[in-house]
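Project standup — Tuesday

K.O.: blocked on the structure for the chain from last sprint. Re-posting the sequence here as requested.
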Amino acid sequence: METQIDFLQRLEPDMALKVLMSLDDSADLIRASAVSRYWQTIVISNGLSKQLFVKRYPKLANISSVIELSHNSETAGDDPPSDAMERVVGERDHRAYSSLFRAITVFPQTYCICRAVSASSTDNYPEESIALTLDPREKVLYRDLYWSSKGSDDPETPEILIYKLTSNLCVITEINMHPFQASFHLDSPIYSSRFVRFRSGHPKCWKEMDYNFMEEGKCANDLFIWTYTSEVFPVAQENRLQRFQLPEPVVCVGGYLQIELLGRVLCEIDAKYYICVAHVQAIGRQLSPAFCVEFSEPSNAITLKYDAEEFVRIMHNVSNGQIDSLSPSVLPVENHRHLVWANLQDFMMLDAALDDVAEPEWVDDDDDDDELDYDETDPIFII
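H.V.: unblocked you, prediction finished:
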């Protein structure tokens, strides 16, 4: 058989690095790292998985460190020898960022708002509280469920609604909003805003989030750092749930969502301008408990926490259809390039093609076990 040559090893190291850096798909980068120890060393030692991930999601460039959680009490807290630390850290980051990239595109979609935080104004609390916008029902005991702003003499006065998401690290693909129609007013006006804009971010100080802003009638907007701002979407003055699909999936780091409502409707009763919302939804992928972020105050340095065991468990359930997702009638139609890993085989290690290549030292393999073993299977190479 003709001798095979690793062409990257025939190149200068800088040129070999440039070749691998040209890969723009994290799945391809994972497969490249499984070709040989030399290729894997280039990928890991240069942090190519993180570089590619940050290029795709630049808002996560502020992650300063990665912690891989351990469920093994015998090994938890054990530090590797100092001469192997750099390699161990590189492998850990490689696993974490590669798994995170996959989770963002494959984890099932769900509703991502867990509670209301504050509104810039409320006309009558609690009868017209922002908390009522999370109830999908239109009425309870013949009572309308909606949030209403206070009246304003200026039709351009904006309003802000703030919600806590189900995880401090999740991916939002679309936000749905249902303007409120006041059937008890003459001509049943729909008090919709003319435009809407969305932001996501995290608190400046987490301790201040224990305050009940709704009950005290205070807006918490100034207490947040908003790291993402969407375009402005037009809102139809119609009594229906309106869908606002974001151009790209947004990774929300910090777990808070702001809805900015622009433009008001005149109320003939008091000649003031109002905005009213009946229902709000945020649809996306909750990344916890496999992933979460932790902020260090006062620097707000971000630490990514990665639970490999949870990631394997969730991926195993996804592959076996054991996790329910939202019905197709609710889900947005995603761009195919966001689903590049819809097939689980895109993420597998190509063992059959690597018979003559030494396997990576950090990938456990048990040929005698045909079933998925959460303790022995590396999450990056799930079949």
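K.O.: great, moving the ticket to review. Residues 118 and 214 are 5 Å apart (CA to CA). The first strand starts at residue 63 and ends at 68.
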